[in-house]
Design a protein that fits this description.
Helix content: 40-55%
Main location: endoplasmic reticulum
Largest sheet: 8 strands, mixed
Number of domains: 4
Number of strands: 13
Strand order of the largest sheet: 7-6-8-4-9-10-5-11
Structural class: mainly alpha
Membrane topology: Multi-pass membrane protein
Radius of gyration: 35 Å
InterPro entries: Alkaline_phosphatase_core_sf, Phosphodiest/P_Trfase, PIG-O_N, PIGO/GPI13
Pathway: Glycolipid biosynthesis; glycosylphosphatidylinositol-anchor biosynthesis
GO molecular function, one term: mannose-ethanolamine phosphotransferase activity
Length: 1079
Amino acid sequence: MASGISLGSRFDRPDPNGLQTTASPSRLSERNDTQKAPVPKALTGRQSRPGKGSNGQESVDDGLEREFKLRHLGSLGVLGWILFLHIVGIFFFTKGFLLTRMVLENKSSCDVLPFGDVSSHPAVGKKTEGCWHQRSFEKAIVIIVDALRYDFAVPFASTAEGETSQLFHDNIPVLYETAVNTPENAFLLPFIADPPTTTLQRLKGLTTGTLPTFIDAGSNFAGTAIDEDNLVAQLRTAGKTLVHLGDDTWHSLFPDYFDPELTRPFDSFNVWDLHTVDNGVNDHLFPLLYPENATKWDVIFGHYLGVDHAGHRYGPNHPAMGAKLRQMDQVIRDLIANVDENTLLVVMGDHGMDSKGDHGGESNDEVDAALWMYSKRKLFGRTSPDTAVPPKTARERSIPQIDLVPTLSLLLGLPIPFNNLGSPIEEAFAGPGGQDWKNLVAVNRLTSAQIKRYQHEYAITRGADDGQEFRSLSFWETAEDAWQRSSKRGKSNTEAMRSVYQSYREYQRHTLDICRALWAKFDVPSMLQGVGILVAGLVLLVFYARGIRSDRTELTKPLLSIVGVGSGLGAVVGGGLTFSGVADMPITESSALWAAVGSILGASRVIFVKPGHLSVPVPNSLWGWLAVIFTVTQSVGFASNSYTIWEDEILLFFLSTFGVVAGVSSMRQKSTADRVLGVYHSILFVILGRIASFSRLCREEQMPFCRSTYYASATSSTSAPWQLAIPFLVTLILPAVVKSFYAGSKSYEGVATLWVGYGFRLGLFLTSIFWMLEGADDGEWFSLSKETLKSIRVFLAQLVLGLAFAAGTTAFIYSKPCVSISVTQGTADSESKNKSTSSPSQPGRTTVTILGFGNIYGTRFFLLVVNFCLAIALMQKPMGLGTIGLLLWQILSLLEILDTNALVLCNSAIGPIVLALLGSFYYFKTGHQAVLSSIQWETAFIPLSSIKYPWSPILVTLNTFGPQILTAVAVPLTVLWKRPLQLHDQSRSTPSKPNNPATKILSDVAQAACTYILYFATINLATTIWAGHLRRHLMLYRIFCPRFMMGAAVLGVVDIVLILFSVAGVRWSMMSVGEIFGW
């Protein structure tokens, strides 16, 4: 409260940033007097009217404070309702858009062959010798070398003039050597994965023989058990003892399938750990090969992760990758030496990796894996001299990964899983001479019959005769006719059998092509439901954010009341429709959908029906139109794949345009100080954006017109040594920059000196040390062990996060405003010198000087932005840390531009929209693209040694969406920066309704927050509509679907951040000011 401050009878001319009070009020003579620092009436009135007492004033203040708190909670409730609409809309669109395949529960059985005429297939002599087909092996060792790309496994062959070998070449020669030197014992082939190239989806395809669907990509690290027929289940049904070693994803997919005494799962997510999993697999794998342990197991699945982790951490072209591949080479040589003649040895990659070591998409490098099979007996062959040597590249003679399922099933004497669409691998059944056409025909006829049976059951289950099943039946009939003719001849004819074999293969591949193109049906009604909710929510948001003329906080109570009633009634209606059978969807989904519809109808009544407070939200200024143009043009552009690919360049153009317009507008300001400051910050804004644009991570579609600079090279996932200096430069420069903006308004007082000058700088310095140690670990500069370096880094990272969130949050909640108040007592003698001689003598006066008064709201709230900046900077790589520093600087320049152009108090949309553009632009400048492979999963281990939920996902979110989070936290500053202190004016109050300026500020904050959300909601709606419209586009899963997923994720993140931190933080900032100056 201000009751402890004593004032004289008049005021001297005050500085708008530092207020000095001594006598009767005079008009502020500095620039923007009426906007910068009006004389706080509570400060004068409360001291000059002691007769009125303080109890009444305190009672009024308490009432105003309670009103502010209630309306603040109401504003959070409105934002929560907007989040609910977004979640429901995105869910229903996603439910219909991201394809899901109908899973058949049918299981293949030994007792039931897939043929209608069982007598047409030669019977197996004994059931113990195999099922459906004579088995070739009793046991198997299946080794998955995660991310084993095909070009890792073959000798380097230059494909362009001047191309030289890289560090990942020629380090695992055993696969190629055995396939060339002993072709009857081994073969090596390109093994093409179906996107998305994430481990969980690949394991599903490798064990079921089915095609993946994109919706599974989100569950890559939280897999659910496979409930359809699969290879592992068939092995278990056959009574085999199964052992798993390595990646624990297998246990999510196949719970309780493996022998608990011999199985050893390892955490698969710690991509910074290259050795623990691989060494653990070796320690438990080779003892099982001892003769005394031979009877303890039948099939071993060993999943090595070191190659994949080396790619994620360093990229493929790094010495660590070469070392890992050499280790795998030795492992395979040791396995060759130890397996017996009855054991099949399989080595394969589940996917590849791109030039930076990441995967998840569908580029060639990501889908190109390697498959190698080995037997000590001479069982394998080649049907043509042209196939005697493994292909030089993955584009030659490749096979899809689903071909592994029928191949392993028939080699081990098992039924082919019911849902399989793969084909037997030719080399595995051609025989030592490569001429066993009878065997090739037999296994391919079996596989074709099973595919036909599956195809038929799938069509029946769907209950739709769309003709798709019969498009490939002609191929089946042709193959069967050819087989029947060759059987009647008695003696096998090589050419005839080759023709039959080709006919069955043609049927299999044609069916696979049909399923690839038309596998699942988009649920268009569900997609339309989602789009409808998003459109309705966007319309309401437009009018709530930009169309309401009155105080938004006055609408909060009636709006939330009717929204609650509408949601409740809608949920009841939805549940009733499900129970009555009208709605064919789960009760929770039906209730959520109708709750959203009910709330939209209720909100429409409050917003549109009440007269007098609504206007058409059409911009009335250049700034308003500029905000609309930025948002709409970007949204429309997402219909173009090239526009989407080059989104970062479009955003830079928008930001530069804003800077130019701001500079021109600043030159037209009346005040010289405004003109100079506005032009300076406009130029600075453009320059900072240009500097940030030098940090880039190119996506595949941008090549060769883009050069990556975010890492040491285009083929690396580590920072260059020179980039390690960037965090130290940020430590040196950024706190000084923040200090200069505080000092400009004389606000570098109080907690700001401690937190910005010491706490923020200390956190940045510790972050710099962290990345220096990370670089030392990568380059092996020190003799310290990797475990010691990791422990030190984890400690430093946890210290920085503790400083940012624990100490920083405490400081933000409990600190006073960034002002300094000094009181000086004058003497009667000194006073008399300044008076007329005729003036009567009077006692000395008190002078109160307040520094930081002109930006009391902005500098207090900016402490929260500093906290988040420190945490987000820690989660970025060194180049990204530098760009986050530039982002904070640009935010401050933007705030000064808004102030000098008088845009703070007029609630212009341009401030929140430019903040949103900055968040989107810097998303690309921190090493990200709208593709799954750019997610930097390893950042989950910056402050942790192992996965810990929910912290690990939160840390990855801070890294991925850090710029959007930082700009979301800064949104209230667009209406708080250099906003004049506004206090309760008794002259404008009524006994029933005291005037409360704090609620006006809250209304402006809510408007700014909703405008910020409006940008991301529009982008999300646009990417949603375009993805739905272009759902059959060739680039859907490469460009449009990932951009839709990114838009939905960003919208959810900014909604949550605004509710929990940004708008919520305004409460503590306002209460801090009210505590000192009253309400």
